[in-house]
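Chapter summary example.
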Amino acid sequence: MAEADIEIETDKESLLEPLLDTEKQLNSEYRIRKRSYRTKSSHSADVDDWLKRGWTVQRAGKRKATVVKPKSHDQLLEDRIWCLAHLMGYARMNGDKFKIAFRRNDGSPGQKQIDVFAADKDTVLVIECKSRADRGRRSLQKDILETIALKEYVRKSVVSSYSDGSKPKIIWIYATSNIIWSENDVSRASDGNIYIMTENEIQYFEAFLRHMGPAGRYQILGEFLKGQKVPGLQGVKIPAIKGKIAGEPYYSFVCTPRHLLKIAFVNHHALNHPDGKPAYQRMISSNRLKEIGQYIIRGGYFPTNIIVNFTNSPKFELISNKENADENIKFGWIHLPQLYRSAWIIDGQHRLYGYSFLEDAHLDDNLFVLAFDGMDTRKEADLFITINHKQKSVPKSLLVSLLADIRLGDSDPKTSLSALASAVVRSINTDKTSPLSRRFAVPGVPPEQNQNLTVSEAVNGLVRSELLGRVVGKSRLPGPLAGSTDAASIDRARSVLNSYFEALREANPRRWELGRTAYISTNPGIRAHLSLIAEIVRYLSHKGNSDFHALNEDRFAAYVIEIAQPAVIYLTAQKSYLYQAYQGDTPCVTQLRKSFTTRTRPAAFWKRSVGPMVPFALPVEHWTASSPLQ
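The structure predicted for these 630 residues follows.
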């Protein structure tokens, strides 16, 4: 989709430099940045000097040689984000060592180095990239406060660089890799209107653009500009019919992809929106989009409706005449909502985004649209299931998360308990401060190496542990992690489980991040620790007369972690075995591999590890006063 040309000052005193603004420059920079290594051309006589500095020879010639070196983790992230912005179709982007010049209130000059800068007539991305070599915590307080202090200066420079008088929306973003955010830094960024983009969002945005094409930029912009006006939709009104179906108000009209794509939003399960529960859409198939695009080019069309839900009610002007008197159906003019993310796609995402890769002229084709007005998100999901239940099967992990969310607070106690467990797992996965953040595989998005956990297995482990509650007859009895409401239970469980698993992560960070090959942060491992927590709580409740239901989250976690110290110490002691996970020649690896080959052995393994603290092998009536907890 071609963007309107913009005019930015580019003289020698430019406020923004270096700036790339031609297709040739941008494509050349993209080819360089998408590589995972740096390249240099060297005279053959100088190759030894490059080798001493850590470079290797990729291609050797009589006179010239090409040497390469892997990019550093911070350069990899910066280039990854630059490529993401390029795929969004921005026509102006930063070159190497890009800086924005500005003047302070006292008139003194200043400069701010920006990692990624992307601009068009309507929006500007200003992105700071922060990373670690290994996953862990890092304070960003100083960086965030500096960004907040300079925002207004930078904004003025950016706006003044537009010679045509445009006033674009500026989006400030911190993109991070391998950083577990602190709650204070999350709050600082939020207070400063700085958006956080972790690996979760980066991975989703990349997959979305690969599947959707250039039109996917509006979905991404909608993440940052929710509720703000979309330029170019002023004065757009369309003939429409207004009526009701099963009590739900709707509009029926014909619209162009050019207009609908700008306000469309697909509630993908992969992104897991806090305000979009239940997230029910699967990721779009890029092959289907290409097939649909070719079908359209050959003159094909779709005689069926794209079904959407307006989250912001549109303006509807009645046609005033005596024939427009039917109480059930009204004829008039609809003014499309002018806000990002205001038309949620319930059915027809492939038909709509099939236009993404086509020439501009096709964006003025006609599409049939049936738009509901303010339908509840749960009803959206029910309608989606009704429409699609006979089509391609939905992944189990998506069903567990989706159906559970729909049934949160269900009258059936078993269903409501599964729903609550699902909500807890999803909350942990999307919590930027959690050691389990982005460790769960997302349906429709290719998993990275350490995304070896599944929502369905974690939900199963949480339900079996009875930490959130248990079902007795037709009632759901609250567990030690339960709060006064489902929302309180989600917050309480997330806090306690984050603290417990953070203690495990800190004991051996490298092994924790290895995922499947290290036998710790795996589906059986997570289930086992949930079982271990439950056993510790039961024991302490019996022997110490502790009421875990009444304990706050910090004390709850502290008691459990204290008893689980042998397991933590065990993991700490195995750091020397880190790189021998495949060899089976160490006691640690052999024990873990043998213990984690069934669904029941992992729990028994970790219970044995804390045996000196809690005699799990004995039934309750045989626990004695000799316990170290007495």
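To summarize the output: The longest helix spans residues 486-507.
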